[in-house]
Amino acid sequence: MIQLENLSLSSSTSRSLRQYQAEVDGEPDFPSRVAKAKKIWPSKKQNKPFEEIKTKLTTMCAGAKRCCYCEDSAADEIEHIFPKNIYPEKTFVWENYLYACGPCNGPKNDNFAVFDLQNGALMDVTPPRNMPGKPPQVLTPPKAGDPVLINPRKENPLDFLFLDLKDTFHFIEWEDDETTRSYKRAEYTIELLKLNTRDLLPQARSEAYGDYKARLAHYIIRKNNGAPASELAKMKRGILSKQHPTVWAEMKRQQDKISELKALFDQAPEALEW
Ligand SMILES: [Zn+2]
Description:
7 strands, globular
């Protein structure tokens, strides 16, 4: 997961979102706001303003419209980072959207947790499911607190996560101390999105690593052979539009500690800025 570029919406689309949100916020109490959000979301997201929203979200995606969480599968669902069933006031808020894939969106669903404002304890605010297979009935607002899930729209996930490029290709908590908020946020995010255990994601990251190295090596050969700038620019674009951009970001961050990478980046130091 990498931090997403912050694009803004046109004023007309922003205005439409505010109008849709006002319909939700105008309901008299919390359960009816949740019900309203759930009811109008499916039709509103078919409306014209969402064409712009989907285009912008696609631009923000990794590679060819890859999921912003796992960076592997096709991103085909607008994901509410704060679930709309718990936070109906964020149903039509641009900063609450990203493009995700079904395998990420499904397990995440209405799962959410916050750090208690008073004592800092991690509190699960996921609504209980009273009937198996039925959506939960959300009757009260969640306890107030700071979100635990890492939010790639607002913060750099690599401040919390470290990708092991040497062996497992698993995400690891950046912070060693298990009692810190940073550690708990990383642990919660890895587990909720099943980033290390699902769909052979570590294998896909390992393959991406090999491909990034091969592309960089090829770039260096062409550069040393005097290839035109347009060809080198195209090779750079090829690297930057691949899926699993976290692997590339980690290669730059860890190149000092991995001799094979150091040798490559020493010959193409400009790539450290890509
Ligand atoms: Zn995904």
